[in-house]
Fold this sequence. Notes:
- This protein is an alpha+beta fold and 103 residues long.
- It folds into 2 domains: 15-53; 55-103, Roll (SH3 type barrels).
- 42% of the residues lie in helices and 25% in strands.
- The protein has helices at residues 2-9, 18-52; strands at residues 59-62, 67-73, 77-81, 87-91, 95-99.
- It has a 5-stranded antiparallel beta sheet, covered by helices on one side.
- β3 (77-81) and β4 (87-91) form a beta hairpin.
- The protein is rod-shaped, with a radius of gyration of 28 Å.
Amino acid sequence: xxxxxxxxxxxxxxxxxxxxxxxxxxxxxxxxxxxxxxxxxxxxxxxxxxxxxxxxxxxxxxxxxxxxxxxxxxxxxxxxxxxxxxxxxxxxxxxxxxxxxxx
Length: 103
């Protein structure tokens, strides 16, 4: 009676061991890398390139949706001219995108 319980409890012929445990985690990491991490890195790289290419006179839109023209720009601060009188100061990272003259 005890012999049959021991045989049923101890699986026979199970191979792979640690490889069978690690392989699913490696596959999940590869899938996450190509679906989430890599596209986010590419997006961040293009955003950083756009922010570093900003210069005086560029028309931009802030994250809050404010449209303006760059009057002054430093390493971390941008001054936007909203209309003829109003100038607003923003962090450089608050710029969402640059607006082309064609659009």
